[in-house]
Write a structure and sequence with these properties.
Length: about 400
């Protein structure tokens, strides 16, 4: 029986419960956004974007199997590596200036920007409607400086891409856009969605889950030489300008080539570096947020570096980095030609050498993370020397 005249136990045994603050949610970098007209049967309310775990959910929401966005979503979700979800962003209309009451459809760049501002979770954006080369360039230009890091993927059937002219591939190559990937396809206006679906499905974070896009199937897409010749000269013209194409090699192999961004970087390198940049940023922010005080001492700098090491270990676990020889020049205690055990080294400048101004501003000395990527083998040469 309770005693209403009892005294509190805390005077004798005082328990302090310290509940740590929740860490910020990590972006898995496995969500692509498909932008287009959602039609009149689908009601997003005031939302710009809606995320679905599969195409069945889209049908339940009012989409039909004949809707263009449904078809592209089916491409994304139908790959050998199936992503956990897909996002749909709607194209909206706006009132044209000077024309009272007249509504016009947003430009692709306007839709892209609005979707980026509405939701920060998606990592690859695909505009699922016809775009002119100028419109593709406008989206790529905006996308290059997006925050957070975002990849723009597009498909083109411009015949200039098959010639020395280079078409939109050359335009974006000359501008050195690192965050844009394009595919030539005369078979499907949204062919790039297939390989992006594979990529999103591969971002699992499990052991050895790093990948390359080259040689991958695009389930649901025809190769360019499926029903007729597609000469090597056209393939080479596309590759020369850092474009991509889906072709058949050796009768049996339907393959995506090369997996390059407009500036020539490889897609897997770009997306993994973007992911781990994000992870490092959130890991350090979590530590600063949850720790009463990170002192300006070498032990505290070691604690900061230890947090970054956990992210580097994650890179090693998925096989994005591995032990190898560092050839990036000397940096602090790392010399050109040294071996990076585990594929990484985290260093910082001595806190004793910090300027008084930086110390008074409570800045940490610069931290340097050196990584040795595993890369990927895309071709092999074998010399056979028979002897009788």
């Amino acid at each position: 029986m309770s005693n209403k005249y009892t005294l509190p136990l805390k005077d004798v045994v005082n328990i302090h419960l310290n509940v740590s603050a929740r860490a910020a949610a990590r972006n898995a970098f496995n969500l692509c956004l498909l932008m287009g007209d959602i039609g009149s049967k689908v009601d997003f309310g005031d939302a710009r974007i809606r995320t679905y775990t599969g195409t069945d959910e889209m049908l339940q929401d009012g989409f039909t199997m004949t809707d263009p966005l449904y078809k592209v979503a089916a491409l994304v979700m139908g790959q050998s590596k199936e992503p956990p979800k897909v996002a749909i962003g709607r194209v909206m209309t706006k009132t044209a200036s000077g024309d009272s009451g007249m509504a016009v459809k947003e430009t692709p760049a306007e839709t892209y920007q609005a979707c980026r501002e509405a939701d920060s979770e998606w990592v690859v954006g695909i505009y699922c409607d016809t775009m002119t080369n100028d419109q593709i360039e406008a989206v790529a230009q905006y996308n290059e400086s997006c925050t957070p890091d975002t990849i723009f993927a597009y498909t083109t059937s411009d015949p200039n891409c098959l010639t020395e002219n280079g078409g939109i591939f050359k335009t974006l190559k000359d501008k050195k856009y690192r965050m844009t990937i394009g595919q030539y396809s005369s078979k499907d206006p949204n062919a790039i969605a297939a390989v992006i679906g594979y990529a999103m499905g591969s971002m699992t974070g499990t052991i050895n889950s790093a990948y390359t896009l080259k040689f991958k199937n695009e389930v649901g897409v025809e190769t360019e030489n499926a029903a007729g010749a597609f000469p090597s000269s056209k393939v080479e013209a596309i590759k020369e300008n850092n474009g991509n194409v889906y072709i058949n090699r050796g009768s049996y192999y339907d393959v995506f080539e090369e997996g390059t961004m407009a500036d020539g970087s490889f897609f897997d390198e770009v997306i993994f570096l973007a992911k781990y940049k994000n992870d490092m940023q959130l890991t350090l922010m979590d530590y600063l947020y949850q720790t009463p005080k990170v002192g300006q001492t070498e032990p505290d700098m070691t604690s900061l570096k230890d947090k970054l090491i956990t992210v580097c270990e994650e890179m090693r676990r998925v096989n994005f980095i591995a032990e190898g020889k560092w050839t990036g020049g000397s940096l602090l205690n790392l010399s050109d030609g040294d071996t990076l055990p585990g594929g990484y080294l985290v260093q910082s400048e001595p806190i004793a050498d910090q300027s008084q101004a930086d110390r008074e501003a409570r800045k940490a000395p610069p931290i340097y993370v050196c990584l040795k990527e595993t890369g990927a083998i895309h071709s092999v040469t074998v010399e056979v020397n028979p002897n009788r």
